[in-house]
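Lab meeting, item 3. Inverse folding demo.
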């Protein structure tokens, strides 16, 4: 009597034409939908949907500066910036920035803006005038006066003009809800190209520039994606399958799977993030892996039945046997893969949730393309009379797998387990120290020697820092910020956080008042302090604003002096730097904060990254635990044994402990971009083991010999493991050597390590455990 999986196999093969027509129709529908899918980064998807830092940023970003601020460095090649031609470039660039998409005109600050002022005393009182607005100084005396004004202003010298006076900085912010990274990048690049000449060099950094730059690499990434898949198929053809069908059928299945996934994703309103293409490559490789397993098993059945003298309907029978025997491990592998990536959706970050849904859809399509479609296609293709390529790895594989079998059957099996335990124990130390967030200065998405990272380094060396975070000081009522105790408390916080070496400096309204007070008292440094009461401070601020335009003080405080901002400049945004800064601010709040005010964390790019890192830090163990639970439950239900679930967790733990330790050792951070790859790796760690163990179980059910069952499992499913893992590991080098994105190269290496560890676990560790402990879910008729 046929069991359920055999009935499905028989139906699919008997109705193979109808099955292919059905698949073709839906492939055509999904192809149309896939061609409409957007490949883009949506700003709001990068932020956690619920987090106090995000709420603070959304409420105050347009006033105090959001996470999409761009810093533009104008560097003079000879002399200093105090030359008419150079100052003219700064002024013109300042004006042209108003035409950039989604720009917040009130957040453009430079030497040529009205917001940077010179404050001085005169017979008329305090004079506060723009440093270089509306006219550019032309005479030597005017240029010297401007230089003197810059050197005397601590809010400009070092912040917007470098200490060596050879560079000037322009900062520009954007309205977050209108941000279009590609458009902003194009506009800013056009402006820089128009002003860059032999006299000055101009560079820009910031999230819009970075995201636009990465999107610009999309054609290269797409070429590498398809190139690596073609290389994988060529490797399969030359050294492993040695037939056109062995190389073409997996490639066709990979294309169909991608069409289905992208089509369904577009129908439910999903978009593909450019950095998510490496995840698409990983899932595509899984499709090819499942397909190769099916072809390997099909060829094995054909060879065995041909040697037995059976030739009638041999392809049909082999396809039925292949589909029936691989349906259970194939479905189980898909479930663990899909479950592993769906746990990413637990993080309240829209980008991760959408990536998880699209990834799970893509993985689920493997059931159709890798498990069912491959045997069906094999029945329509003539079995090759001879191999097209003479180089044959079959004998080498057979010898290697035989030696592995001897090793796990013999006394060495104890040594294998001891070595694995020792390696994993050491790996646990490094895995526990993995960095949550970025682990490198600059952006980890690009190589250290990239133009962007070099520009970041120069700005961080010459100015306060490229990334900012603002802390909101919220009073209980109007004029709360003018209270002397509040202003002094703000200064205390600023000096406290500035002790951290990775912070370049900070600025707030509390920095303005002492300078005005000193000028009012004829430059006497004894009076460089906060006013004695709120009325005095309000008058000092009023004097500073004399002759100013509305909005000149907006980046420091609101009109009612109820809310103010402390802007902190960071020289890097590594996970450790951000966590330390947030921790120090919270410590200050718990010890030194005034009763009449409240500090709200935290806006700006650093505030956003802090929120993302906290969400990932809190949820990473939860995600891993849920992913392991998925493996436990699916394997327990499939084999109707809780022992099975525990056994299959072992290769998952091995691969993830060692891969995470590699990430920690090589300073690859666990962030919003790498987390989905890590989640897929959890399912990836068990796939090969499922195929090998199921083959051992299948043989024992028919023959009843435990030792021969292990040899058969390695010889049969083990060859499929080698056929699929080795080409994938080899083709990942294509990403490493040719990708301009460091992130993609590092993720390709991680994929290779995961595949190698998964293969070793399946071919050595799991058979050794099975032969040692003889679990009933395997050796039970």
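The presenter then showed the designed sequence:
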């Amino acid at each position: 009597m046929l069991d359920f999986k055999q009935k499905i196999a028989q139906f699919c093969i008997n109705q193979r034409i109808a099955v292919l027509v059905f698949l073709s129709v839906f492939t055509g529908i999904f192809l149309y939908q896939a061609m409409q899918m957007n490949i883009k980064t949506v700003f709001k998807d990068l932020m956690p949907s619920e987090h106090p830092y995000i709420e603070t940023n959304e409420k105050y970003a347009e006033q105090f500066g959001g996470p999409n601020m761009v810093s533009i460095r104008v560097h003079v090649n000879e002399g200093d910036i105090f030359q008419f031609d150079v100052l003219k470039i700064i002024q013109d660039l300042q004006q042209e920035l108003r035409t950039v998409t989604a720009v917040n005109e009130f957040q453009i600050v430079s030497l040529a803006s009205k917001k940077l002022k010179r404050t001085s005393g005169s017979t008329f009182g305090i004079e506060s005038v723009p440093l270089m607005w509306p006219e550019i100084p032309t005479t030597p005396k005017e240029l010297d006066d401007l230089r003197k004004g810059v050197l005397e202003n601590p809010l400009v010298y070092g912040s917007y003009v470098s200490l060596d006076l050879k560079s000037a900085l322009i900062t520009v912010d954007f309205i977050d809800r209108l941000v279009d990274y590609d458009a902003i990048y194009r506009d800013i690049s056009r402006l820089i190209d128009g002003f860059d000449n032999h006299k000055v060099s101009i560079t820009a950094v910031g999230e819009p520039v970075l995201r636009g730059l990465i999107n610009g690499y999309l054609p290269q990434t797409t070429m590498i994606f398809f190139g690596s898949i073609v290389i994988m198929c060529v490797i399969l053809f030359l050294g492993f399958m040695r037939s056109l069908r062995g190389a073409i059928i997996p490639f066709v299945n990979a294309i169909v799977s991608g069409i289905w996934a992208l089509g369904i994703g577009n129908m439910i309103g999903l978009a593909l993030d450019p950095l998510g293409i490496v995840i698409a490559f990983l899932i595509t490789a899984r499709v090819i892996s499942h397909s190769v397993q099916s072809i390997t098993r099909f060829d094995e059945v054909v060879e065995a039945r041909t040697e037995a003298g059976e030739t009638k309907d041999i392809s049909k029978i082999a396809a039925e046997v292949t589909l029936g025997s691989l349906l259970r491990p194939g479905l189980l592998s898909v479930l663990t893969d899909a479950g592993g990536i769906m746990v990413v959706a637990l993080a309240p970050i829209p980008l991760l949730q959408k990536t998880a849904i699209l990834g799970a859809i893509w993985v689920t399509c493997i059931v159709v393309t890798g498990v069912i479609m491959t045997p069906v296609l094999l029945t329509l293709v003539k079995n090759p009379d001879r191999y097209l390529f003479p180089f044959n790895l079959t004998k080498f594989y057979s010898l290697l797998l035989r030696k592995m079998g001897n090793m796990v059957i013999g006394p060495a099996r104890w040594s294998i387990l001891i070595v694995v335990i020792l390696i994993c124990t050491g790996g646990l130390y490094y895995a526990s120290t993995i960095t949550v967030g970025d682990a490198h200065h600059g952006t980890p998405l690009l190589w250290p020697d990239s133009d962007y990272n070099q520009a970041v380094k120069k700005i961080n060396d010459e100015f306060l820092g490229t990334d900012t975070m603002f802390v909101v000081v919220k009073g209980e009522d109007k004029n709360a910020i003018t209270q002397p105790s509040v202003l002094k408390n703000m200064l205390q916080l600023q000096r406290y956080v500035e002790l951290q070496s990775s912070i370049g400096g900070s600025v707030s309204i509390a920095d303005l008042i002492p300078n005005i007070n000193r000028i009012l008292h004829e430059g006497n440094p004894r009076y460089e302090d906060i006013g004695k009461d709120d009325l005095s401070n309000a008058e000092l601020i009023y004097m500073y604003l004399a002759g100013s335009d509305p909005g000149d003080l907006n980046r420091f405080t609101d009109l009612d002096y109820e809310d103010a901002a402390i802007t902190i400049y960071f020289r890097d945004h590594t996970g450790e730097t951000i966590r330390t800064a947030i921790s120090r601010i919270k410590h200050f709040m718990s010890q030194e904060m005034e009763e009449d005010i409240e500090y709200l964390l935290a806006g700006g790019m650093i505030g956003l990254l802090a929120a993302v890192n906290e969400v990932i830090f809190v949820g990473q163990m939860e995600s891993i635990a849920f992913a392991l639970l998925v493996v436990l439950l699916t394997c327990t239900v499939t084999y109707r044994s809780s022992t099975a679930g525990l056994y299959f967790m072992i290769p998952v733990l091995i691969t993830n402990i060692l891969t995470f330790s590699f990430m920690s050792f090589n300073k690859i951070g666990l962030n919003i971009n790498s987390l989905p790859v890590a989640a897929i790796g959890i399912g990836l760690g068990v796939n090969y083991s499922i195929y090998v163990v199921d083959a051992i179980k299948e043989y024992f059910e028919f023959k009843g010999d435990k030792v021969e069952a292990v040899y058969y499992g390695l010889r049969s499913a083990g060859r499929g493991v080698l056929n699929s893992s080795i080409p994938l590991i080899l083709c990942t080098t294509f990403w490493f050597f040719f990708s301009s994105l460091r992130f993609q190269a590092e993720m390709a290496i991680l994929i290779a390590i995961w595949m190698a560890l998964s293969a070793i676990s399946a071919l050595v560790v799991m058979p050794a455990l099975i032969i040692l402990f003889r679990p009933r879910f395997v050796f039970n008729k």
